[in-house]
Amino acid sequence: xxxxxxxxxxxxxxxxxxxxxxxxxxxxxxxxxxxxxxxxxxxxxxxxxxxxxxxxxxxxxxxxxxxxxxxxxxxxxxxxxxxxxxxxxxxxxxxxxxxxxxxxxxxxxxxxxxxxxxxxxxxxxxxxxxxxxxxxxxxxxxxxxxxxxxxxxxxxxxxxxxxxxxxxxxxxxxxxxxxxxxxxxxxxxxxxxxxxxxxxxxxxxxxxxxxxxxxxxxxxxxxxxxxxxxxxxxxxxxxxxxxxxxxxxxxxxxxxxxxxxxxxxxxxxxxxxxxxxxxxxxxxxxxxxxxxxxxxxxxxxxxxxxxxxxxxxxxxxxxxxxxxxxxxxxxxxxxxxxxxxxxxxxxxxxxxxxxxxxxxxxxxxxxxxxxxxxxxxxxxxxxxxxxxx
Length: 389
Ligand code: AOS
Ligand code: ZN
Ligand code: ZN
Description:
It comes from Streptomyces fradiae. The structure is a single chain. With about 400 residues, the protein is an alpha/beta fold. Helix content is about 45%, strand content about 10%. It has a single domain, classed as Divalent-metal-dependent TIM barrel enzymes (TIM Barrel, Alpha-Beta Barrel), CATH 3.20.20.150. The longest helix has 21 residues. The chain is globular and about 60 Å long. Bound molecules: D-allose (AOS) and zinc ion (2 copies). The site of one zinc ion has 6 residues, from loops.
């Protein structure tokens, strides 16, 4: 019989975390972007950095791309370049929020010509998926209104549904559409996909290839994200996560940094409800920007935080928990969770990495690798990648 530690390690071996290409590039606040030496100038260089994260964590074989930030002439060549480094290209993220045309929205815009342009971009993203072998199209819409009366809320939903239906039709057999929601920003009065319920309703109508993606930074303070996760898993509609951490709004900080307990609670619902099984096809993606911290180590730290939360969730004694729940023993049920949360899983993760032929301390191994110094020396000239580049 497997002991608990072995069972936890076996489950952890099945989990992968997808890293975002934009996490390797420069980003900032509306006030300032602090450039760092060695930051990638091209999608190709972003893949090189992603390969380093995979080399030291062993669990990040996929990289999400963002179009047009990662636009290249030959996507098949980009996929081959990734494969040479042990990587695959993951979700294709669309961008219908940076053009002047989108002042009043994209797929919900009142003008049909603008909607056509936005849908054209989404269809182009599916063409790119065909070339890269990506299976996930991740859609986040900045659409919404700023003022009461600005536009017809229901008409905007109709336009959204029509656009999604057209994109859904274009998806291949193995491809799916992941619809992200966000409470506010950049729109401040209404947002066209503001919450999981709206996303869920559209996905339900579209069909089985449409699922909801939960960005952990996109809720009102106090929202129980773990409830949403449990509900969507039960319905087979949880497509994946955009993991990050927040104090105020969509802060895009390192996942698990501000509230590791929340991350544990989310991962408890995931592990308890079968979300870790490959068949569940839940994409554990990061959606983060590293503005003041070193980027590659920040991605490594984030991956480790996800692994630690997952390991703790896997340690929950589900039998004891179920027994306490049946008996209505509130304190014992709560203790089953807290015991697992309060376990130091770092020794177990070190052991797991050693079993997989990895260095037990990924951050130290990365620091000793010389990669940071190498990219700082070699990546000179040209323009560093960032939002819009
Ligand atoms: C925006 O707030 C969403 O989180 C998006 O998923 C994402 O940050 C953006 O599209 C970068 O790809
Ligand atoms: Zn996101
Ligand atoms: Zn976001």
